[in-house]
Amino acid sequence: MKSYGQYCGLARAAELVGERWSLVILRDLLVGPKRFNELRQGIPGIPSNLLTSRLRDFEDASVVERVLDGRNVVYRLSEYGHGLEPIVVGLGRWGARQMDVPRENEVPTDNSLAAALLTARTDEKVQAFSVEVTAGPATAHADVSATAVSVATGPFPDADLRLGGSSLRRLLADGDIDAAISSGAVTAKGPATLLKEFTRAFSTPLDEVAHNLP
Q1: Which is nearest to 135 in space by CA: 176, 175, 186?
Q2: How far is CA 182 from CA 176, 190, 196, 201, 206, in A?
């Protein structure tokens, strides 16, 4: 881990989380504890030795803990590490303003989709419901309470609402569920009232000015 040589909290934080892949690893651990192979498989492109190095740095800084879950060793955020949640969520929301269609070779993962739901939760008070979301190869689900959300990866057979399709990102930006469904860009299964609750519970604006820059 490289030092900036400055006695500064921001510099110290940047030393720890500013390295390549670090924030993506933390994003996936915010979704939930994971075994090493689950982390590696969930982050396409990260070399195993680099993942090992980043996890070791996080352990040394007491951000991540390595614990036994039955016979398996899993990595999870420590209490100190969980303090990063509002920061990671805020960065994700800030970065999402520049996302519309994926770039070439960009794909969603189960963890990135779950984190997107965490990031997109608004302050709106809504009716409690559960939702399963599919985007390309990725599936995640969320339990939405009146003012909060908990997320996880994979399908949720008992979800109250199921959403999928190619334009979920645009739906989070404009909230026009009727147009998205009528165009076929989004598929939905569940009560119409919950579709409206979804668009109130989840929203991430697009930064049209930045998006249109050359």
Answers
A1: 186
A2: 10, 15, 15, 21, 22
Alpha helices (runs of H) in the chain, residue ranges in sequence order: 9-17, 22-31, 36-42, 48-60, 79-82, 85-96, 110-120, 168-174, 177-182, 192-201, 208-211
Task: Assign domain 9-83 one CATH number from 3.40.309.10, 1.10.10.10, 1.10.150.20, 3.30.70.270.
Answer: 1.10.10.10
Give the tokens for residue 195: 């579709």
Tens digit of pLDDT at every position of the chain (214 positions): 788 999 999 999 999 999 999 999 999 999 999 999 999 999 999 999 999 999 999 999 999 999 999 999 999 999 999 999 999 999 999 999 888 888 888 889 999 999 999 999 999 999 999 999 999 899 999 999 999 999 999 999 999 999 998 778 878 888 888 888 888 889 999 999 999 999 999 998 887 655 555 4
Amino acid letter at 45? G
Instruction: Kindly report the number of other CB atoms within 10 A of residue 65's CB atom.
Output: 16
